[in-house]
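Supplementary notes for students who missed Thursday's class. We covered one full example, reproduced here. Read the sequence, then the structure, then the short commentary at the end.
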Amino acid sequence: MSTSLWLDGLVIVFFLSLIFWIGLFSSKDGQEKKYDDLTLGGRKMPWWSILGSIIAAETSAGAFLGTPAEGYVLQNYTYLQLALGTILARLIIAFFLFKPFFQLKVHSIYQFLELRFGPLTQKIASAIFLLTRVLAMGTRLYVAAIILVVGTQILFQKSLSPLQEVTLYFFSIVLISTFTAIYTTLGGIKAVIWTDLIQASVMLLGGIVAFWILIEKLSFVYPLPTLFHKLIDRPWITMGIIPSKGLLENLLVILAIDYTIWSALIGSTFTTMATHGTDQDIVQRLLTAKDYQKSRLSLILSGFADIPIGFLFLSIGLLLSFFYSTHADSGLPANPNEIFPYFIITQLPSGIRGIVIAAIFATATGSLSAALNALATSFCQDWMHPPMNVITDEKKKVSILRAATIFFAFLTSLIGIGTAMYVVYSPEARILPIILGIIGFTYGPLLGVFLLGILTRTRGSEQKKCLRHGCRFSCRIGSKWPSVWR
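Structure (token representation):
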């Protein structure tokens, strides 16, 4: 192995070791681990650490590699329109949705649905989350493994057969999931948040470095003012409306385009309300804050952070298209998901290359660690019998939670391997539409039932008696009305 590869390897090992060390020791406080500490961090995490954790969750390996692929293929910034909807959704969630979760002191947000509508609604909602999150995280695990597959092809200077690619994906996915599962199982949500903060920093550093090197390489072809004008002079907003066509035809055109202002203000708004207001993965981080005001601050600021981050990675994709249009390369992959990894391995200098590769692994482990903790918490709170609040033995509760974490690590690995097999035999597939498609089918109904629980006071078919007044219908007395239901 060349000296340059050794240097890259040392950089990657250093960053991963740092993440692993923080994951193991960030939650050590000299006391025995408790279930509440592993799931909610004692409700005393600082707002800025939660902000970093949310950014890390949103900029997963799928976004790190998938967003440049969108810029590379679409040749514009229309994907960035979705950020408008994410900001609007966060404002709605922050001021209308979170307060009851803190008042009720829930571990799993689906406990709120049990208090409002009964255990059947709770279990259906929890099942939707478990299924959706396992599928989405499995897909993201595949993304993180791309860099290893592309690197192996370049290192040995030969193309891999489909079977060899799938085998390499298998070992890469198992390695990443095992690494992440260890520190998540031992450290809990505190480990998730503190490692996410480091991972978000590494991710941004890697993106900025890649962007700057692309600018530097293209400056030999285009003067900088010309390059920046060529970069910025792209469509940002797409209406999808053709004046010469009728209403129905325009509607069909709009529905056929991936990103329009309508999908931003409608689709992205409601999708973000679902992902950030009804998804245990994100909301559990927010529940670790001292109160809902601190949680609200973290959530809103994370929305505004989406704009510069999205611009950075879309710009990388556009710059990659400029670079390879002026630098012919017969080895350029056909799959747009692999263009950025290919550039990283073939064009970045040694050491810098290691930082960017470490950033990809950081985004993968960060999103996976949070998902594993959220999946385990939801399973324990929503499905365990007897319920976790009935079990008094702290060691038993912690053991159950850790066993659930390991189980979901195994399950997401299987999904990741299955996704890799699909993409290997369907190389034209793009990452982000796959991930967004997985969550799109189920989040609408989930958001609807939460909004019904927040905005109304009446009970559903699973009515229980109000312990305070003995009534079997709506209880409208007192501002903390959910607390009277059991």
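Commentary. Confidence is low (pLDDT under 50) at residues 463-486. The chain is about 75% helix and 0% strand. If anything here is unclear, bring it to office hours.
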